[in-house]
Structures are given as structure tokens and as C-alpha cells.
Specification:
Helices cover 0% and strands 0% of the residues. It contains no helices and no strands.
């Protein structure tokens, strides 16, 4: 999010201001599943 990097593990959660540029990337060798919700919708 922005210039910040955060590595999450199994069971971790996150939140951030969706107006800040962001992206998700799998840095591991296995599959990654992300469940996400936006409130209020910002897409």
C-alpha cells in the first residue's frame, strides 16, 4: 500500500485506505487465496 510492503501469512488479515495505490502479489511457491471486501464500494 503506497510505498509500504507487508508480507502476510496463513490466517493473517489486512485493512487499508483503498484510495492509496496498492497491489497484491504471491511471494511464495504455493497457491495463495485472498478473500477481500470493500466498504463502501470503491471500484
Amino acid at each position: 500500500v503506497g510505498e509500504r510492503v507487508k508480507v502476510l501469512g496463513p490466517g493473517d488479515a489486512y485493512y487499508f485506505n483503498a484510495e492509496i495505490p496498492h497491489r497484491f502479489r504471491n511471494v511464495g511457491d504455493g497457491e495463495c487465496e485472498v478473500v477481500s471486501a470493500a466498504t463502501p464500494p470503491s471500484y
